[in-house]
Model the fold of this input.
Amino acid sequence: MEVLTSKTELRDWLADRRSRPRVLVPTMGALHRGHTSLFDRAREEADALGGEVVATIFVNPVQFGPNEDFDAYPRPLEADLAQCREHGVDAVFVPVVADMYEGDRSITVTETRLSTTLCGASRPGHFDGVCTVVAKLFLLTQPDAAVFGEKDYQQLAVIRRMVRDLDFPVRILAGATVREEDGLALSSRNVYLTPEQRAQAPILQRTLAATAQGIAEGRFATPQAAREGFLEAFGEATLARLDYFEIVDAASLEAVEYFGKAELRLLAAAFFGKTRLIDNVGVGRVALG
Ligand code: PAF
Done:
């Protein structure tokens, strides 16, 4: 596996393999089974194309707010590289901030619709940072396809929109959320949880799943009733502060006012102490009357 630590090294490595198909997995490191499942998905795709897998590890400062955990974000590089190696990654691009961003950078990629609600409402500028870095990583690594996790469902939708609206020649593939046995979605931020918070954290997934099931079985007449059901059940999490819970159209991310034919997604974010966890589940089209 090649470890490429600068844009120059990446360009040199790419120079002789321009025509080879490539599948990209962008990450911020602190890799866990959620990420390695994306590497495995990328490997499958690359094998089908007769190509290779490129991962990137870059804690992207421009997607963090001023009071967020950029400095504290875990950076276990050696362990991360070992996981990339074990999961069939051919090359890892690990740039430093000064190589990725000029000091007087003045261009930002902004998505103006899907990114304004949900996490975008409580993390202003976050998706601008994500779109800007992902656009740069697409241009730098020139992939045919790229894999993103469904755990960050809004991010996935925003990136699909960016690819559509800016004509990036990249197919976006979604990787299913990987969970602990008790249902908690794997996240690099789970390590911040105290044992008590960790014990309560699976309630996020449990209440989302129960609400989704209630909708599918027709137990809630309206999205408002489903919302009330969610809030009541989530109220048991004494250590949590809910940031948002929304029932949205799975494609447009627009909040639904009644249950029709749309495929739905239920998304929530909650703070356990300073740690903000997000999760989401789907409700299939067929289940709705
Ligand atoms: O999902 C992430 O880890 C990041 O937002 C991404 C897509 C790697 C961009 O920095």
Remarks:
- The chain has two domains: 2-175, 188-282.
